[in-house]
From TrEMBL:
Any Gene Ontology CC annotation: blood microparticle
Subcellular location: Secreted
One Gene Ontology term of the molecular function aspect: metal ion binding
Residues that, per the record, bind Zn(2+): D256
InterPro entries xref list: ALB/AFP/VDB, Serum_albumin-like, Serum_albumin/AFP/Afamin, Serum_albumin_N
Sorted UniProt keywords: Calcium, Disulfide bond, Membrane, Metal-binding, Repeat, Secreted, Signal, Transmembrane, Transmembrane helix, Zinc
Cystine pairings recorded for this chain: C72-C82, C96-C108, C107-C118, C142-C186, C207-C253, C252-C260, C270-C284, C283-C294, C321-C366, C365-C374, C397-C443, C442-C453, C466-C482, C481-C492, C519-C559, C558-C567
Domain of life: Eukaryota
SUPFAM superfamilies: Serum albumin-like
Xref: Pfam families: Serum_albumin (PF00273)
Residue ranges constituting the Albumin domain according to the UniProt record: 18-193, 194-384, 385-576
UniProt-annotated binding residues for Ca(2+): D256
Gene field: LOC112988281
Protein name as it appears in the record: Alpha-fetoprotein-like
Amino acid sequence: MNWKTIVYFILLVNFTVAKALPRSYRDVGKNISHILLYSFVAMIMFAQYVQEGTFGKAVKMAEDVTDLAKRCAAAGKDNQDCLKPLVSTIFLDMLCQEEDLPRFTDCCAKKGSERNDCFLSHKNSTRGFISPFERPNAEAACKNYSQHQHSLTGFIYEVSRRHPFLYAPTILSVAIHYDEMMRNCCRSAPKVMKPIKEDGLKQEHTCGILKKFGERTVKALKLAQISQKFPKADFVTISKLVIDIANTHKDCCRGDMLDCMHDKILTYVCTNQDSISSKIKNCCEKPLLEKSECIINAENDDRPADLSPHIREFIEDKGVCERFAQEKDTHLARFLYEYSRRHPEFSAQMLLRIGKGYEDLLEKCCKTSSPDDCCRRGEEELKKHIHETQSVMKTSCDIYKEKGDYYFQNELLMSFTKKMPQLTSAELIKFTKQMTTIGSKCCQLSQDKLLPCAEENLDLVLGEICRRHLANPINPSVCHCCSSSYALRRPCMGKLEIDENYVPLPLTPGLFTFHEDLCTTEEEKLQMLINLIKYKPYITHQQLTSVTAAFTAMREQCCKEENREACFVREVSHFCFHLNILSQNGKMQYTQEHRFLH
């Protein structure tokens, strides 16, 4: 069967026909729609594992895997090789037989899970590792739509190799949107590409949490999120969903894109929707891929009318310590479930901190002679933390609303350059810009939606910083925040101060050199601010204001002149005068360093 035809056809298949997707080669061979899906997922896997591999190799690999599935289906029960795991054995065996893959020689020398882990470690989601995706020529595609149909395979290949952590269901869903976009002659191309980037970041983020903090943390995070989304569902139902979803993430994160298909979870949710949520009826009527996206984006269900506002039994009940001792994880899970379903206005990360605080409280109080009194005192600490978190977010939004995007980013740059001076200017600008975007997105929301929006989006940025640290260590303080506790990562980063071990940049002729493009770009101004703080990390806010005023005056004057370049060369010495009046913890020795400026 022609591969291009297979891929285009699979996009038109109503996936709801397949009650359960294939989990072995033999299952695949029994159903033609399974064969198509199997082929498609095999291509995604190859493109994600071997990002620099050619499109032709990806197609060949998919065809080989599909042919093997058909042979296994016809072989009966006698062929034990067909029962081997798809990814960790069969798929990687086939990859290692391929020629022209020198980057993976060390991986192919390993066995079992170590081999798969080695391949996964080579995945690179860094922007620019693969050249940016080029949108198709709209006019040409619309003139010859049949030609576009054949290029759809290439689109899936290109998306997969640029987003090696993106889950297969997401890629398939994006493919459908892409197909719809092409039918409308590419008028909405940006709407298709943006979710790919956002979804890829979220899914890589989840895999990072799983890798660094383990399955228990992922389960706790999903427990908080699902309990908020489905507050009417009972604890047993929520627990089942948490386990199934955590297992699906494990499959996806280890590259097993066939088991990554979450069809069983969706079937369970929709079959039991009456007891789970009143907000997903329309979602459950959609095809599989649209159903998944719809349920994920559905609003939280209404809380049960008879749900009490407090959960006093977890503090006041005489049997709390006994239950904690006998079934610790179940007791803590019940607490997190009950607390989360009552507080949709809290972020999942804050709920995890509350859960950790409750665990620490019981660890401490259940060892005392009067656990009841101890627990009540701990409850006050919990209320204090909630108030502090809400105050931090409110203060940040007040600053954003008062100063706007540019000055808010400046404030963030000053703070994060002092905390993480080892980051490049481009990285500091990128991360603080992302944080500023969070301000514009979340600070306009009502108080009950502010915290989930702000902290959950900020968590994605901090996750990216921590992955950057993992690849290229930043400093010990950042290492501590990224490694000690997922729930406490945001408060930990917030409390970081100046990196005292950082050696400031020396004053060189090029450190404060300005050109006429300063008149047209914001990035040059941000670069000056970063260099200034890396040069004088202990600069005070007052001193920075003085230097910034001098910089602004120089910029305004030179940008008015005809020969801007000459003006900047002339005026830079006046600007540097303001730098030279800073003290040793903000002061230069003018006579020693001034010569570098001329």
